[in-house]
């Protein structure tokens, strides 16, 4: 296929969908709120202390800038390929290729992170069963749900979103009641959070810097607004859906984390337990730990399944643009699910199961960090593509784009500051190097093909 024909095919937008903007917001929340928030935030608390709340506020600002860039491009030129298409349009085929495969790899790592977290959480009830076995069980269940088809997936994500939101609200209500003294504490003297700088930033500036990646990771999922915008009845409502989704997430994230760090000393938080369970551990709420743990498992399973669904759909789009082998186009299907594309995603899940078998003690922190970094690399592509495609001339728009790039780069570089999470940076660097090498090879191949056709 010639370059002209390929671009013509890409410029053909998909047919109108039947999804309302509020439904897209709900699906976005369902695809975003997962173990990155429910469990991964405990790593951030351990690294920086109560100042994790400030990390989440700054991450919300950076996320909004990225979302705004994607939403503007979606409203101006709705395309099935979303950020991959916009990167290609802005910088050339190499950008669309690398952006697509970078997102695919980040989603696979997100699945691995969620899968490992689910196993860790399930060990609360079955401590003697190894992580890899639980990981395998959840992986199979996730594949089966995707095989049910798009309509069944949307219905289940709606249900999961309601359960996750209810769990967060339950914690907020109970935490406020506990701080007000309405729920009896098991300890004689309640913990009082000091507002001194040394207490708010026990990890110093380096710890605060390193915590950014976990705050950003909790917001990972805004890409669904772009990928699913084609299903909206009115494509121009994509920005509204994203704003409602992001404002809701930022509000509950900041409020719940503020309450959590006010309730118990920082040294009480561990990566084996949700910070929200830890916060209420000293209160007479025997049901909460198990009920909330179950809700977190549902949240993580939801996000993992959404990631698997996303990479399955994205690989088909990449293949249509001839940036992936043709076998991954919609040739073999089961209930509108492309089986070859799903199969490659399942291989990613299998790799996570094997990794959990080999590195059960440290794998969650490493994979979570690497997944967050790769996700932020793609966000840089979104901001840069927006600046090029929309030709923004205003000072405010340029300042916003530059600020977003700076905040994202600060989050990525912060992972080098903390030794316990630094291996995650190296893992992401390996992925980026592999993608870069393949992109260079493919770019030479495309140039030769274009030269031979001219």
UniProtKB/TrEMBL annotation:
Where in or outside the cell it occurs: the entry states: Cell membrane
Q: Which Pfam families match?
A: AA_permease
Q: Which GO terms describe its biological process?
A: amino acid transport; transmembrane transport
Its keywords, alphabetically, are: Amino-acid transport, Membrane, Transmembrane, Transmembrane helix, Transport
Task: Give the domain of life.
Answer: Bacteria
Kindly give the InterPro entries that the UniProt entry links to this protein. AA-permease/SLC12A_dom
What membrane topology does this protein have? Multi-pass membrane protein
- Tell me what this protein is called: L-asparagine transporter
| Primary localization class, coarse | membrane
User: Where, by residue number, does the polypeptide cross the bilayer?
Assistant: 20-40, 52-71, 101-122, 129-149, 161-183, 216-232, 244-266, 295-318, 339-357, 363-383, 395-417, 423-442
Would you name any one GO CC term? Answer: plasma membrane
Where is each Amino acid permease/ SLC12A domain found? 23-395
- Parts forming coiled coils: none
């Amino acid at each position: 296929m010639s370059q002209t024909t390929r671009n013509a095919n890409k410029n053909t937008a998909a047919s109108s969908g039947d999804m309302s903007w509020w439904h897209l917001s709900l699906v976005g929340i369902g695809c975003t709120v997962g173990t990155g928030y429910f469990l991964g935030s405990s790593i951030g608390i351990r690294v920086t202390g109560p100042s994790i709340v400030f990390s989440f506020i700054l991450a919300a600002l950076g996320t909004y800038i990225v979302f705004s860039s994607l939403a503007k491009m979606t409203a101006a030129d709705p395309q099935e390929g979303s950020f991959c298409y916009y990167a290609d349009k802005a910088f050339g085929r190499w950008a669309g290729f690398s952006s697509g495969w970078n997102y695919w790899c980040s989603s696979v790592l997100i699945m691995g992170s969620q899968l490992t977290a689910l196993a860790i959480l399930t060990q609360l009830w079955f401590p003697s069963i190894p992580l890899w076995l639980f990981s395998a069980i959840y992986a199979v269940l996730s594949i089966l749900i995707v095989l049910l088809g798009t309509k069944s997936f949307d219905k289940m994500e709606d249900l999961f979103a309601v359960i996750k939101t209810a769990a967060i609200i339950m914690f907020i209500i109970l935490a406020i009641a506990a701080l007000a003294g309405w729920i009896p504490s098991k300890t004689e003297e309640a913990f009082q959070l000091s507002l001194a700088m040394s207490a708010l930033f026990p990890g110093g500036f380096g710890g605060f810097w390193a915590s950014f990646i976990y705050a950003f990771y909790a917001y990972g999922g805004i890409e669904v607004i772009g990928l699913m915008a084609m299903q909206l009845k009115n494509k121009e409502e994509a920005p509204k859906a994203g704003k409602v989704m992001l404002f809701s997430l930022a509000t509950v994230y900041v409020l719940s984390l503020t309450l959590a760090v006010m309730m118990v000393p920082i040294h009480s938080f561990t990566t084996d337990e949700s910070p929200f369970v830890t916060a209420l551990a000293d209160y007479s709420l025997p049901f909460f730990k198990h009920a909330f743990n179950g809700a977190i498992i549902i949240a993580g399973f939801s996000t993992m399944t959404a990631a698997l669904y996303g990479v399955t759909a994205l690989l088909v789009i990449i293949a249509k643009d001839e940036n992936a082998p043709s076998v991954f186009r919609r040739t073999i299907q089961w209930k509108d699910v492309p089986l070859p594309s799903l199969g490659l995603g399942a291989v990613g899940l299998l790799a996570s199961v094997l990794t959990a078998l080999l590195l059960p003690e440290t794998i969650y922190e490493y994979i979570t960090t690497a997944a967050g970094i790769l996700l932020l690399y793609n966000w840089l592509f979104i901001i840069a593509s927006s600046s090029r495609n929309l030709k923004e001339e205003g000072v405010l728009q340029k300042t916003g784009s530059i600020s977003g790039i700076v905040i994202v780069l600060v989050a990525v570089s912060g992972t080098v500051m903390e030794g316990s999470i630094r291996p995650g940076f190296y893992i992401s660097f390996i992925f980026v190097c592999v993608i870069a090498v393949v992109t260079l090879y493919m770019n030479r191949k495309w140039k030769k093909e274009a030269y031979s056709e001219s």
